[in-house]
Amino acid sequence: MIFFSMVVAMDLQRGIGKAGNLPWSFPGDMKYFKTLTTKTTTPRKQNVVMMGRKTWDSIPQEFRPLPNRINLVLTHKQYPDFPSPVLFADSLEKGLRLFQTSSYQEKIEDIFIIGGEEIFEVALKMPACKKLYITHIQHTFDCDTFFPHFEQQFKQNTTSKTLQENGIPYYFAEYQRHTNANLP
Length: 184
Ligand SMILES: NC(=O)c1ccc[n+]([C@@H]2O[C@H](COP(=O)([O-])OP(=O)(O)OC[C@H]3O[C@@H](n4cnc5c(N)ncnc54)[C@H](OP(=O)(O)O)[C@@H]3O)[C@@H](O)[C@H]2O)c1
Fold this sequence. Notes:
The chain is an alpha/beta fold. The protein is 20% helix and 34% strand. It has one domain (4-177): Dihydrofolate Reductase, subunit A (3-Layer(aba) Sandwich), CATH 3.40.430. The strands form two sheets. Strands 1, 3, 4, 5, 6, 7, 9, 10 and 11 form a nine-stranded mixed β-sheet that branches. The two termini are 18 Å apart. The structure holds NADP nicotinamide-adenine-dinucleotide phosphate. Residues 8-9, 16-17, 20-22, 51-55, 58, 74-77, 90-92, 114-119, 122, 145 line the site of NADP nicotinamide-adenine-dinucleotide phosphate.
């Protein structure tokens, strides 16, 4: 089994998006996201960022593909027109399987699923999803997309000190899946 983590910023109601975009702007959180998903312990390796097609669309053209990471977009479209070298797959399982092939095994370090709601929903149910990196924003925004309930299956490992931007506090937390969460 190939393991992966998920990275998300959510508000007090688990809200993550509004009208195809982020409802907030926190440069400190963007920096955290970039460092987390880019850094590797082996310099010749890269991390993978997997995302739904709508999340891909939400990234401004000049910032995508996300640099120094292998970008894979999930879509059911048969002939999507993502620029090279962006990868795509029509299911999460197929996307993950790609990185188990010998051509990628030597090249990749960690796999991060980065949204949005539809993808988080499917991925959270998979036992291969071992870790969550959550930015907890201490405010309620007007959102139309949400992160699923995760509290039962995951336990909190670490939490950062609270930061503040635009007068809104937020902090970073890491969660680990309970080892017996998926036993029958
Ligand atoms: N706060 C955060 O951390 C965060 C992170 C990421 C995104 N967001 C926000 O979340 C919102 C987007 O979320 P969303 O749920 O609307 O869209 P999404 O999950 O980003 O993308 C949905 C699309 O992904 C494809 N898809 C879905 N399930 C699939 C599967 N099992 N296999 C293959 N392809 C699949 C389909 O693409 P096709 O239609 O092309 O077939 C579907 O329309 C935006 O507002 C974005 O800003 C927030």
